[in-house]
Amino acid sequence: MKKFIDLKTEIPGPKAKVLLERRYENVPRGPFNTALTFVKEGRGALLTDVDGNTFIDFAGAIGTMNVGHCPKQVVDALKHQISDYLHTSFHVMMYEPYITLAEKINSITPGTHDKKTFFLNSGAEAVENAIKIARKFTKRRGIISFERGYHGRTYMAMSITSKVKPYKNGFGPFATDTYKMPYPYYYRKPSAMTNDDVDDLILSQFKDFFLREVSAEDVAAVIMEPVQGEGGFIVPSVRFVQGVKKLCEKYGILFIADEVQTGFGRTGKMFAIEHYDVIPDLMTLSKSIAAGLPISAVTGRAEIMDAPYSGEIGGTYGGSPLGCVAALNVIDMIEKEKLYDRAQSIGEQIVNRFSILKKAIPQIGDIRTLGAMTAIEFVKDPYTKEPNKELVGRIVQETNKRGVVILGAGLYSNVLRFLCPLVITDEQLHEGLEVIEEVIDEIINREVE
């Protein structure tokens, strides 16, 4: 069987070590790095570094590469666009790809109501602007997010994000009129409770919350990840998500689905919120929208999106021609190749393999997935469920050294997350999984010895 991992040097190799020295001298320590090497070429689910080492990519640029690295259709479209014009700023002289992409997003997002869409550069910008629009439309101030939620690193986005370190520590004060509610974490529920009990408890807490913290009449929006990303790939029940939406409808609160990490086929549908039969008022989109080019979107009900007046939303680079052209071709690829179906297959294969391993390794506490948004949670003890952050750190480090790029996640940093490109072949997927299994087995057996 053909092998895709090809390691010619240790990691980092000689050329990467030189670049690392330059990185440490010239770039602040704040931006984190997982794989301690430098890419030279990316194709599909494979990355080759400056020393000629080839890796299988299970990180996908933190969920950005659903259609893989350098897909030919996208690259060809970009070359054509570059030869015409690079940028005029949509606010100065408009361009057709922006309108065409808005039409496409409006047509594929949930709901048959009239929609409008505009574009920015990053997921955090999309979140910031969705909140601006919600406040403008409702004439209310309050924003409710959820514990373990992640929405970005700009100030409003950071304010509604839950994990303190590394995202919020020392950066306050934060934006006012933001509040957090619990979010189901069924693996860590008390043993006497059912999943329905967890849902009922949290939903009932909204009633007291509106008495204790903020009046429902002063809440503009609830923002929710349909699957929590940085929080550890926590999947809520249909019952819970629908329950939150009903509360929003009861009190005239807008429901914002943050699909920055979950969108564009990752969970087995074009958008994760489709699993819950819920139609959001607003959606935030980014990451895999454009195969790595910086573009994001806010889309929603036309009357809500039209609440800001001319000039009140936008940005110089928002919805760049290159980003729009890339996004149109990414969406075309996802639809033509049915990559949402491929996501389902990828998730099933990962779960099947690690379910077998779980029987032999008690440190594997939980395996969860929605499509190809798959995670393994590690614990020190299966009964106490004490998080095993140290083990995950070692697994990530050693796996990267052996040619598979992967990331951790979770409030407790004890979750191994899988975000491989949806174009990964079964052969590449299984070779990468074998490496991860070997690393887990070796590290745990070493601890036992």
Helix content: 25-40%
The appropriate CATH architecture of the largest domain is 3-Layer(aba) Sandwich
Classify the secondary structure makeup into a structural class.
alpha/beta
Radius of gyration, rounded?
22 Å
CATH topology of the largest domain: Aspartate Aminotransferase, domain 2
Beta fraction: 15-25%
CATH superfamily of the largest domain: Type I PLP-dependent aspartate aminotransferase-like (Major domain)
Return the CATH class of the largest domain.
Alpha Beta
Instruction: Write the H/E string, N to C.
Output: HEEEHHHEHEHEHEHEEEHHHEEHEEEH
Strand order of the largest sheet: 4-10-9-8-7-5-6
β-strand number: 15
Instruction: Give the integer mean of the pLDDT values.
Output: 96
Shape: globular
Distance between the termini: 33 Å
Report low-confidence residues grouped into runs of 5 or more: none
Per DSSP, the total helix count is 13
Tally of structural domains: 2
Most strands sheet: 7 strands, mixed
Features:
449 residues, alpha/beta, Aspartate Aminotransferase, domain 1, Aspartate Aminotransferase, domain 2, 7-stranded mixed β-sheet, 4-stranded mixed β-sheet, 13 helices, 16% strand
Report on the structure:
- The chain has 449 residues and is an alpha/beta fold.
- The chain folds into two domains: 124 residues, Aspartate Aminotransferase, domain 1; 264 residues, 3-Layer(aba) Sandwich (Aspartate Aminotransferase, domain 2), CATH 3.40.640.
- It is 39% helix and 16% strand.
- The chain has 13 helices and 15 strands.
- The strands form three sheets. The chain has a seven-stranded mixed beta sheet with strand order 4-10-9-8-7-5-6, sandwiched between helices. Strands 1-2-3-13 form a four-stranded mixed beta sheet.
- α6 links the parallel β5 and β6.
- The longest helix has 23 residues.
- The protein is globular and about 60 Å long.
- The chain starts with 13 loop residues before the first helix and ends with a helix.
- The relative contact order is 0.16.
- Pfam families: Aminotran_3.
- Its cofactor is pyridoxal 5'-phosphate.
- Keywords: Aminotransferase, Pyridoxal phosphate, Transferase.
- Belongs to the class-III pyridoxal-phosphate-dependent aminotransferase family.
- This is (S)-3-amino-2-methylpropionate transaminase.
